[in-house]
Design a protein that fits this description.
The protein is α+β, with helices and mostly antiparallel strands and about 240 residues long. Helix content is about 25%, strand content about 30%.
Length: about 240
C-alpha cells in the first residue's frame, strides 16, 4: 500500500525528531523548501506539519517558523522493550508463535472503544518463545486508524511489538505491572498448570493525542524481570 505524500513527509520528520537527528529547538525548513524537496503543494506540506504539531513534536510560530518542540518535563520510568531483541542479545533463540490475528470492531470494553475511535481494531495474539519454550503470552490491540499499515503487515517474520517499534514511533507510554494467576487458556499456551504465578505487564502507547496500541503480556513468574535505572542521565534498562 503506497503511503500518501503528506504521511511520508510526516513520517520522515517524525523519525528524524524521535531519532535525535533534529533536536528540541531546531528549526525545520520553510514550507517553500519542503514543497520543492518533496515536489508537492503547500496544502500537502501544511497537512503533514499540522499532524506533527497535533502530536506535540513541533511548534509553529507565526512569522518565526516551525521548530522541534521541547519535551515536557517528565521521566520515562520504563521504556518500551523489544522482547525479541532482548532475548537475542542474551544469546538465546527467539520465536513468535501466532495464536490469533483478526480485524474487528470494538466491543463493549471502554479501553477498546477509546483505542478504536471511529475505526477498527487489529487483534494480534501470540506466544513469545525462548529456546523452544514459552516465555510469555501476548494479547495486543492496535488502532487500524492510527496504524493502517498493520492490517497487511508481515508479522510472520517480525513479531508485532518489534514491527510497531520499527514503524510507528511513539511519544507517550503507560505501563502497569502486577502479579496474577494464569487463567485456563493462558496457562495452556504457557504450558503450565492453571493458577500458576505470572508477571502481568499492561501497556498503552500514544503518538501525540492518538492512541496506538494496548497490550497485555503474561510472563512466567520465574522467567522474566523488568529493571529501571534511576538517576541523572540514567535511562530505563
Amino acid at each position: 500500500m503506497k503511503m500518501p505524500l503528506h504521511e511520508r513527509i510526516r513520517s520522515d520528520f517524525e523519525g528524524r525528531i524521535l531519532g535525535g537527528e533534529l533536536a528540541p529547538g531546531d528549526r525545520l525548513p520553510i514550507e517553500q523548501e519542503l514543497m520543492q524537496e518533496y515536489g508537492c503543494s503547500r496544502m500537502t506540506v501544511n497537512k503533514a506539519l499540522s499532524v506533527l504539531a497535533a502530536a506535540g513534536l513541533i511548534v509553529r510560530r507565526k512569522r518565526a517558523g516551525t521548530f522541534v518542540a521541547r519535551p515536557r518535563v517528565h521521566s520515562m520510568v520504563l521504556d518500551v522493550p523489544d522482547i525479541a531483541a532482548q532475548v537475542r542479545e542474551r544469546g538465546q533463540d527467539y520465536a513468535y508463535r501466532p495464536i490469533r490475528r483478526v480485524l474487528r470492531g470494538a466491543g463493549e470494553d471502554q479501553e477498546e472503544a477509546l483505542l478504536a475511535g471511529r475505526g477498527a481494531l487489529m487483534q494480534i495474539d501470540g506466544v513469545h518463545m525462548v529456546d523452544g519454550a514459552p516465555l510469555g503470552v501476548e494479547f495486543r490491540l492496535v488502532s487500524a486508524t492510527a496504524v493502517p499499515e498493520i492490517v497487511k503487515a508481515d508479522l510472520d517474520s517480525v513479531p508485532p511489538g518489534s514491527w510497531l517499534l520499527q514503524h510507528v514511533p511513539w511519544t507517550e507510554a503507560e505501563t502497569r505491572i502486577s502479579a496474577v494467576a494464569a487463567l485456563a487458556d493462558e496457562a495452556r499456551w504457557l504450558g503450565v498448570p492453571a493458577g500458576s504465578p505470572c508477571l502481568c505487564v499492561e501497556r498503552r502507547t500514544w503518538r501525540g493525542t492518538e492512541r496506538v496500541t494496548y497490550v497485555r503480556q503474561l510472563f512466567l513468574g520465574d522467567a522474566y524481570d523488568m529493571v529501571a535505572r534511576f538517576g541523572p542521565g540514567a535511562s530505563a534498562r
